[in-house]
Amino acid sequence: MAVESTLLSQVAVGAVALYTLVTASRTTVEKLLALGRHYEVPDVLVGMTVLALGTSLPEISAHVVASIGILSGALDYEIASGLVLGGNMGSSTVQQTLLLGMLVVAYGRLEIRDSFVRTSYVPMLGSFIVLLVLAWDGMVSQLDGALLLVAFVGYVFVTVTRRERPSLPTEPPSAAPRRDGAVAVGGLTLVLLSASLLLAVAQVVVAGLQLGGSMVGVVTIGIAAALPELSTVMASVRRREPNLALGTLVGSNVVNPLVGVGLGGLLSTYYVPPAVVRFDLPFKLVVGVGLLAYVYYVADRALTRRAGAYLVIAYFAFVSLRVLLYSAQ
Structure pTM? Predict the structure, then answer.
């Protein structure tokens, strides 16, 4: 009974940490976007830094904190690796399937431009392939982490040099840049602290429930970390600006594997649970390639409500199969 009470208290603390992580991340991104507007930073730079990295801030911060915990001995190597990799896969799959499906169902029909496929969607699929190849041996080494980060830098360089104009939120510039700067720094600090608490609690929960670390990551960090993107989807539908959400969802699926896993791997290396390379990444690739084929060969270069419904179904299939086949990993 005492064990169950302790476990429940740990879950409650973890829920608070998750909420704080997501809320602080959202506030930090909002203030940084306002500062970018105030100082007239080019949209392409804001889109590739604040928006792309900011919406993935929960995942990136979890990776950094996990790596520091691994290096210091405060976190178990395999459990911490599984938690953040599972969270990364879970979050990006939520975005790629459930949230994108919700966006299309709510909006009705989205025309897909060849330039978007070339500059955003294909790099997303490429990031899955690169991570799958590097992690296939069951480990993300420091060299692997460096290669993932180099791939992201190359992606940013190509995007910036082509001056692709991203869709950004129509938020006003900061009226008090010093205050907003202080809030952004405070929010980032809170993000790191809440991520530290979350991982410490998650490690206890994994041991208590005898579940795999990556499975716990998929259903906790994975779902909660996608909440910033959910708010973007809702705002885009309300404002009739679907391209903003579309770019954010696809962009986050480039940032998560390349920056999140790359930075963590460079710092501490990671143990890769078999489920990540045998199921998570192959599933994401199959869905990604299948959706692209649907757009070009069935729906006349558009995402329709039927495609959106298929994506929502795909997410629940992902979670169900993950639980049935790999709950212990």
Answer: 0.83
